[in-house]
Amino acid sequence: MPEYVTIQEQIERRTYLKGRFKGKFVGYLDPNKSDIKHENFYDLEILSGEIFISKTSFRIWKEGDEFEEFIEVEKFQTKLPDSLPCAVSYPDGTVKHFQINLNEPKLINSSLTNQHYDGSKIFGDIDGEISGYLKHYDTEEHKVEVIQVEDETLTPVVTSTKIKTDKQTGKTETNGNYKRWEYYYANKSTYWGDWKYQGSGSGFSIWSYIVRLFQLIFFLLLIIPILVAGARIITPLLIIGGIFWLLSSMQPVLTFIWKWLIRLFSLAFLFSFVFGIISLFRNPIHTTVQKKYATDESQEVTQTKPEPQVFGDSIISHHRIWQDYDSKEYEGNLEVRVSDFKKSNQFRNNLSYSVQNPSLYNYIVSQIYDFDKNKLSRIYMMFDSLKTKNNLNEIQFAQVITSCIQDIPYTLILDNACDARQYSEDFIRSYLSNGGKCEGYIKFGLLTPIEFMGSLEGDCDTRTLFLFTVLNHYNYDVAMLGSELYKHSVIGINLPFNGVSKSINGKRYVIWETTEQGIPPGIIPRELSDMRFWSVNLISNNQAI
Question: Domain of 221?
Answer without folding.
Answer: 206-267
